[in-house]
Predict the structure.
Amino acid sequence: MCQITPCTTLLLSVLTLGLVGLAPNALAADELASRSCIKCHKRNGQLEGIHASPGLAILCQDCHGPKGSHPKKGSTIMTFGPDSPFSAQQRGAVCLTCHDHQALGEVEWTHNVHANRLGCDQCHRLHPEADPMLSLDTQQHSQLCIGCHQVEQ
Amino acid sequence: MSALHFEGLVWHWPIAIYLFLAGLSAGAVFFAIMLKHFKLSHEAWHSPFVQAAAIIAPVAVFGGLGILVFDLTRPLDFWKILVFYNTSSVMSMGVLVLMAYQLVLFAWIASVFQRRITQLLDKRLPIANRLLNWLVKQEAAITGVLVILAISLGAYTGFLLSALIGFPLLNNPVLPLLFLISGLSSGAAATLLGGVLLRGNPNGVEVRFIHGIEIPLILVEIGLLFTFFAGLILSGGQSQVAALNALGFGFWGWIFWAGVIGIGLTLPLAFNLWMKVSADRKFAYVAVTASFSLIGVFLLRNFILYTGQMTGI
Amino acid sequence: MQVSKRQFLKGVGALLAGVSVYGATRTPQANSLLQPEKESELKYAMVHDENACIGCNACVQACREVNHIPEDVTRVKIERKGPFGEYPDQSYRFSRVSCQHCEAAPCVRVCPTGAAYIDKETGIVAVNSDRCVGCQYCIAACPYQVRYIHPETRTADKCDFCQQSRLAQGLQPACVEACPTKALTFGNLKDPESDLVKLLKTRPSYRAKVDLGTRPKLFHIQTIDGEIML
């Protein structure tokens, strides 16, 4: 289950190569913006899992978009989870900027049948150290299906 | 998918060895009987070729059964096959034939070698001597039943596989006949090889007689193989797929064309024809021809068993 | 020659007598063609609705748990084909692979000891593991490839509609109860009021490899999803 898709590996290497070439100043500006998020989001803003790998160098705004007027009204900041005002497709599209749907489908077929029905965030967590989806045994896997698909007699 | 391990493979090489040995035993007995009946008559018991057959037939059938029992997942429960029977099961009927075959085989050997055994016993066991004398009197009946049982056993090795309806290459009416004929030719080869190893005359009447039968036998076998695969290909569907899978290139294709057709049939046929026209037969000719035949039949058993299970319906 | 011919005939006669004696000692469990008995009121069968199935494998796990099936073998499999359609609107087809409880079961026909038999009461194809020697003839003979050697008992094993584990207690098979989408329907083919018969009479169904003459009792309702396959 805990496989890194071929796409991720490619991405990792591309990013690492790209970062080496980047000017230290340009990097600093983005990083400063990212650090300012953490000032408020100390608890829910820490990125600890595989997405926090230094090689990936993912910043808050990479997924959540530019700060804009956040936290004031009229903010267009991207949010995930059950309270998100964005549609499942919009949320999923953020993940799919890096992840390849075909590779995901090959690793786990259920990706394909939920592609236009669920957002990735409805099953996956990328902020915590471990994504619960990566450590499912066969029984938990089935239980996850049953959780939504159970029909009443 | 490798040639020897693949999805759906149930029976492995021990079964092929068992099928080979059972057919070989039946063939050896068949040729020993033919030798005695048509050529040697009362002199049979001191022919090295009949002696070889009398050793090979029981050893092969015991060896085959031993391998079969060892291949069970519960070898210690093998006696249940002897106690419980199922009329619709080819295997069950085969066990019945095998039991009867072994019994009659020993009766036949005893009656043919009666004089030798009596010499060995030297009046020590009067009951055994009486039994031997009785068996000699029944020899005609014993021989008749043994011929039927040997042919049944040879065909059974094919029926065992042809009862598997899920595999078009195995579930084929020609298979029992093919296995019977190739079993007989392996028996002939084993008898020849054993005979010359026991210092039998490679240019003797026995070798000439067996070679005379072997040539038409090989031709029939080639015809059966052709019918077997032509029939499968003309049936279309999965039968065709199975036949082309087996005969095509790859490991089993090589085994078939080089091993079965080349070493097993073409070379022995050529050697036999050559020996027929040349003045006399030498030990090496007879031994090499017989060995090639044996290798060919052994490879055919493995080829059919494995490629048969490769393509299901 | 006259004498030997008579002796030969005697021998053949003895052989025939042996065969008939053996006929009397055959297994009581094997399906007998010789003695038609009064028909049982029960004939269990199962329907798998491939439209309802979501491929969650809950049936596989329930079976494993209830019947104590070790990890490397299984009595039931859900075969998945696909994906069909274009991303992101894709679907799969699911098909149940398990014992079909054939009326003319090849495994029962080939079993040398009668360890594989058809239970006359219920029509269930069952295994008497006390009689099984592990020749694996049944495994090779089953065209549906649903039999295996149980790693612990070393005997042939397969789905028995939970006859041992649940039917006796009046419960449905474990897979049927575990299915979250009610894709499995189990019941008595001889009861016209059963859900099973009603379902089979209202929906078109198919059975696998019927041309082999096995007369299987596992019915499938074909999915309408996906493309037409040739």
Chain B touches chain C through 37 residues (CB under 8 Å). The radius of gyration of chain B is 20 Å.
